[in-house]
């Protein structure tokens, strides 16, 4: 079975997380966390920063590793390294996705998640139940 290794950003803003809707492929219209394939020799963190620049035209701060998901789709095995992240600036531009939403823990089940992303939901609900870390202010 083909193996694909990807990274995903769980971008938190206050008590919400950022979700994106796929606009193409077998899972068109399903929801996921933004990210993408790692390139040969690339660390997961470098891949995530690159993918978010390419998909959302923004910069994120990787706050910490959350979980690695292993999932068998019909055509391939997915390994997805997931990181809690935050925006470095307030602007996001959808360059590859059909739509996006900021979801609270109460709204998190209101969209149709890709199966591998859905595994993360209990972990994310737990994270959203904790106060978000304050972002240091520099002079």
In brief, what are we looking at here?
The chain has 139 residues and is an alpha+beta fold. The protein has helices spanning 44-56, 115-118, 121-128; strands at 2-13, 16-21, 31-32, 35-37, 60-72, 76-87, 99-104.
Tell me the total number of β-strands: 7
Q: How much is the average pLDDT?
A: 91
Beta percentage is 35-45%
> Which architecture would the CATH scheme give at its second level?
Alpha-Beta Complex
Radius of gyration in whole Å, from Cα? 14 Å
Q: How would you sum up this structure, described in words?
A:
The protein is an alpha+beta fold and 139 residues long. The protein has a single domain, classed as Nucleoside Triphosphate Pyrophosphohydrolase. Helices cover 18% and strands 39% of the residues. It is built from three helices and seven strands, in the order ββββαβββαα. Strands 1, 2, 3, 4, 5, 6 and 7 form a seven-stranded mixed beta sheet that branches. β1 and β2 form a beta hairpin.
């Amino acid at each position: 079975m083909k193996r694909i290794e990807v990274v995903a950003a769980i971008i938190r803003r206050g008590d919400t997380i950022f979700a994106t809707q796929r606009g193409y492929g077998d899972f068109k219209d399903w929801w996921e966390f933004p990210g993408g394939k790692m390139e040969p020799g690339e660390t997961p963190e470098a891949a995530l920063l690159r993918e978010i620049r390419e998909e959302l035209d923004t910069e994120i701060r990787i706050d910490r590793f959350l979980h690695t998901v292993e999932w068998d789709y019909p055509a391939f095995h997915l390994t997805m390294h997931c990181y809690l992240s935050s925006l470095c600036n307030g602007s996001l531009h959808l360059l590859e996705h059909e739509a996006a939403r900021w979801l609270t823990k109460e709204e998190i089940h209101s969209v149709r998640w890709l199966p591998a992303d859905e595994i993360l939901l209990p972990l994310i609900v737990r994270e959203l139940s904790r106060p978000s870390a304050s972002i240091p202010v520099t002079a």
